[in-house]
Amino acid sequence: MTEFGRSRWADPDFTKEYRENADIYIVERGRMFGIMRSFYRHFISDAGRKCILDLGCGDGVVTHNLLSLDNDISATLVDPSAYMLDKARERFSDSDNITYVQASFQDLLQHDRIQHDYNFIVSSQAIHHLSTKEKKRLFVFILSHLKTGGYFMNIDVTLAPSENLEDWYMQLWNEWMNDRKADLGIDRDLFKDIIRRYKKADENRPDTLEEQLNALSETGFREVDCFYKYGIFSVYGGKK
After folding, report:
1. pTM of model > 0.85
2. N or C terminus of the chain: which is more exposed, having fewer CB within 10 Å?
3. Sheet holding 146-157: strands in order across?
4. What are the residue ranges spanned by the domains of the chain?
């Protein structure tokens, strides 16, 4: 059994709960997607026929955001969850330029099932499930599948560099969820346990932002930087 098969993400009930509440769970999710769209417009949109790779695509929300800018994109969506890929297929039922690959990151690292190179490779809230060693191997895989001049962007959680900052970042996260609940008129305690569940789950293996930026640079990426950060939630990447 793969690591994915032992994780909560193999449970359709858990993934359904996540999909329904992701805008509350993920701090500044809309803003991070806005930054991604701005990045695409600035760096990718003039690249001719664009090909994108969406790693850990979930229900396809990242690709949906990019298609809202450019419906000529050819996209490959990769996720280990059959449930999530089914939801992505529903979302893009009218599109004929989407390819779906059911595979975990570990599957890709063991048997490269990606046959193309891409202008833009993006991942959201997925890579933190890998160990440090696996992240570095994935960065090598990503670089190998980027066209020259192409970009990688990761929207993800990162580990705070100190316990004091970690405590504050968890407080920021909790305040965000409480504000969203108030905005939506939710008075249930559905979200009070999210932070504990995140910190306790063995499948969550975040590294510090600095470690990941250094790993990208060591892999061979150029123009490596953090494009946005709010507590543990970060947007970073680099260029081939």
Report:
1. yes
2. N
3. 98-102, 74-79, 51-55, 118-124, 146-157, 233-239, 222-230
4. 4-239
